[in-house]
Amino acid sequence: MRIKRVWYKLRVRQQVCNFFKTWARYLLLASLALLGLIVEGYLRDIPKDPELNLIAAGIAAVAVLGALLLRRSKWHAGYRKLVSRIIAWSFVTIGFILLDFPRNLLPFFSPSMSTLQNLALGFGIAMELTLVGIVFRMGDVERESEDVMEAQSRKRDSTPDWDAILAVEEFA
């Protein structure tokens, strides 16, 4: 009876811990989404503000420096995954920024304009939507490459180094 009670308490404690872990994870994701909205405003202003170009270049330089310094570290895989997620998020954000252009052109469709003008406007909107689709696809490819890199790393770590094994056997 006592073992069942202890087991029940452990199970309840684990469920409570899982609840708080999930809650903290969603809180972190919501905070990152808010940060994303703030950064999205800065991304919109990059073409207008030359100082933001320098900040973006500085962030890229820090990311490359971090990748070089952590290259042989145990944190390299996590860092690479984080950078990959940020790049994918950046592509999606750029795609949403580019969606603003076709949205602004939609009010220009009118029956008073000639058919040729409406057709040209429709073609321009279709081309812009195609560009947005390409940018969204680039974000998806970057997100998928994160899984491919992790699988390659796992395979590389699990494959034995036969040259080292044979070298040890020759000297044994």
What features would you highlight for this structure?
172 residues; mainly alpha; 6 helices
Total beta strand runs:
0
Structural class, from secondary structure content? mainly alpha
Count of helical regions:
6
Rg calculated over all Cα atoms: 26 Å
**Uncertain parts:** none
SSE pattern: HHHHHH
Termini separation comes to 58 Å
Give the mean pLDDT: 77
Beta fraction: under 5%
What share of residues is helical?
over 70%
Largest sheet: none
Tell me, what's the shape?
extended
Oligomeric organization of the protein chains: single chain
Describe the structure.
- It is a single chain.
- The protein has 172 residues and is mainly α.
- The longest helix is centred in the N-terminal third of the chain and has 44 residues, at 2-45.
- The protein is built from six helices and no strands.
- 1% of the residues are buried.
- It has a domain at 80-157.
- The model has no long low-confidence stretch (mean pLDDT 77).
- The protein is 85% helix and 0% strand.
- It has helices at 2-45, 50-69, 76-98, 100-105, 115-158, 162-171.
- The termini are far apart.
- α3 (76-98) runs antiparallel to α5 (115-158).
Summary of the model, kept short:
Helices cover 85% and strands 0% of the residues. The chain has 172 residues and is mainly α.
